[in-house]
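Slide 14.
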Amino acid sequence: YLDSGTITGCRTDYWGGGVCVDVGQFYMTGGTISNCTAPKAANDRGYGGGVCIKTAGSKFEMSGGVIENCQAYTFGGGVYVEGDFTMSGGVIWKNKLTWTGANQGKGGGLWIGGTATMTGGYIINNNLSRPSCPAGVGIGKGCTFNMQGGIIWGNTASDGFIGGVQQDGGAYYNKTGGLVDPAIDLTLENP
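Slide 15: predicted structure.
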């Protein structure tokens, strides 16, 4: 549970530069997670520069606070979620994913490897080191993103391409509210 204070300058070679939940729940209502990293390791991991929810039965609820200036290598510059993620407030911004290869390096702000619902908050100004890919949110094959509110804006790839949400083939993106600017949905059939 994080409702105030700062987690900053932390590092791991694998899962969750700032916070890693293997089995359980993490609630963020305030405070800041900043300048944490999950860089490249020997097996090319580095998931979730700020927060990593590692297992399918775990969850992360974010209603406030800031995750900023974090960095990961493979998936989820700011947040990587294998379980359930609910965002009703707060900000995920200025995070970066450093993978430059072809098929990974997704989710500069948020990577969804389970189910995510966004009703509020901001995912803005995140970055990918790959060209021509939406850098805000990445959705894995067979995974679901329900966007009912909030703003995804100003997320950029290495070549300046601006895009909000990237779907792997077989991912589910259900947008019933909120703002994605620009409104680009990119589906990759062969992730």
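Speaker note: The radius of gyration is 14 Å.
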